[in-house]
């Protein structure tokens, strides 16, 4: 059983769904709440969330010995999140509990199309820094999954680079956060991390901003030149594109009813990582990621639709999903 460690955020998510179309579509899309108006809610759903929480649960369901490294508060949200991780079989030995502070929290306003606006408070996630990071545990895993982290956690990036520079090192999946995206792929520390990244995950807008290129394919080539072994760029309904430095692979999405987009990227990343750990080729990793994310968008919450390993194997065998390949 492969050992993984997901590093990053965890949040307590409250989904508020309304049947009204509150998305204003005039050039730019905006979520509009009329001041002074009372809007009827269809349902309210509580669920765990946060990048590292989602990916650790995703990897655990797929049969990995998954662990989560992050920070929770001693409040009721923190207690529920901790209990949920443990119920999912995720090791919480690398969790730090901060007394008297509030855990990360998100209020997610969504409409019937699956589009949403997320209002969030980082809470105790802001305390994920070098003193709270379990470096020794990370070094003993088979694979590190580095999720979005705050700008203040730069020292953790140094720690991860140091681990990956060892002869016997874990693999690395990296999904950069907003502060890293803005710094760009030429930033000295991020450039060093890229050279040790086995799987880099970005969406289309992130990839363009990170590289300052004009389109995803140019961004893909730039990031491969930076040293990442595999680069994968997701583009919503347009599917995903990836490269291993030799070929470019394009995978479409599966047509499914979209109820909520929250956690789709984490579902894709955890399944793609699992596939690589299992020794599957890149096209199969793209198929696994696509299948897992399609399950998540059909449910409310970031984890409800995550597949178990037996389900994933069956769907990989029986789902028609053609991955096209071209030269880099």
Task: Describe the fold and architecture.
This protein is an alpha/beta fold and 328 residues long. The protein has a domain at 3-22 and 40-238: Ribokinase (UDP-N-acetylmuramoyl-L-alanine:D-glutamate ligase), CATH 3.40.1190.20. It is built from eleven helices and 16 strands. It has helices at 51-61, 76-87, 135-139, 154-164, 178-183, 188-194, 204-211, 216-225, 264-277, 282-297, 309-318; strands spanning 3-7, 11-17, 23-26, 28-31, 43-49, 65-73, 95-98, 105-110, 116-121, 143-146, 171-174, 199-203, 230-234, 240-243, 247-251, 324-327. The protein has a ten-stranded mixed beta sheet, sandwiched between helices. A four-stranded mixed beta sheet has the order 5-2-8-9. Strands 3-4 form a two-stranded antiparallel ribbon. Helix 1 crosses helix 9 (264-277), helix 7 (204-211) packs across helix 8 and helix 9 runs antiparallel to helix 10. The two termini are 34 Å apart. The model has no long low-confidence stretch (mean pLDDT 93).
Question: Could you describe the largest sheet, including whether it forms a barrel?
Answer: 10 strands, mixed
Q: Give the helices and strands as they follow along the chain.
A: EEEEEHEHEEEHEHEHHEHHEEEHHHE
Q: How many beta-strand runs?
A: 16
- Evaluate the radius of gyration: 19 Å
SS-derived structural category: alpha/beta
Q: Which strand order spans the largest sheet, edge to edge or round the barrel? A: 7-6-1-10-11-12-13-14-15-16
Number of helices: 11
Q: Which ranges are low-confidence, i.e. pLDDT below 50, for 5 or more consecutive residues?
A: none
CATH architecture field of the domain at 3-22 and 40-238: 3-Layer(aba) Sandwich
Spell out the CATH superfamily of the domain at 3-22 and 40-238: Ribokinase
């Amino acid at each position: 059983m492969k050992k993984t460690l997901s590093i990053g955020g965890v949040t307590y998510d409250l989904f508020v769904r309304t049947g009204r179309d509150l998305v204003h579509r005039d050039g730019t899309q905006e979520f509009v709440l009329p001041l002074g108006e009372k809007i009827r809610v269809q349902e309210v759903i509580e669920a765990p969330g946060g990048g590292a929480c989602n990916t650790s649960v995703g990897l655990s369901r797929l049969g990995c010995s998954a662990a989560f490294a992050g920070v929770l508060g001693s409040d009721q949200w923190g207690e529920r999140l901790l209990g949920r991780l443990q119920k999912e079989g995720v090791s919480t030995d690398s969790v730090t509990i901060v007394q008297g502070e509030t855990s990360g929290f998100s209020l997610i306003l969504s409409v019937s199309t699956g589009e949403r606006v997320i209002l969030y408070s980082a809470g105790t996630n802001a305390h994920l820094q070098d003193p709270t990071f379990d470096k020794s545990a990370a070094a003993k895993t088979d694979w590190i999954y580095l999720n979005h982290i705050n700008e203040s956690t730069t020292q953790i990036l140094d720690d991860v680079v140091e681990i990956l520079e060892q002869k016997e090192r874990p693999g690395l999946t990296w999904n950069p956060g907003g502060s890293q995206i803005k710094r760009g792929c030429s930033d000295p520390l991020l450039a060093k991390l890229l050279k040790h990244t086995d799987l880099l995950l970005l969406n289309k807008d992130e990839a363009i901003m990170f590289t300052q290129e004009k389109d995803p394919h140019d961004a893909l080539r730039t990031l491969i030149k930076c040293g990442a072994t595999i680069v994968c760029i997701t583009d919503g309904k347009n599917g995903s594109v990836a490269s291993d430095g030799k070929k470019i692979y394009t995978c479409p999405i599966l047509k499914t009813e979209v109820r909520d987009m929250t956690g789709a990227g984490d579902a894709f990343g955890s399944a793609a990582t699992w596939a690589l750990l299992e020794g599957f080729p890149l096209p199969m990793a793209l198929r696994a990621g696509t299948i897992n994310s399609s399950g998540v968008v059909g449910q409310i919450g970031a984890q409800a639709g995550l597949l178990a390993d037996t389900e994933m194997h069956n769907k990989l065998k029986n789902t028609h999903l053609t991955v096209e390949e071209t030269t880099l």
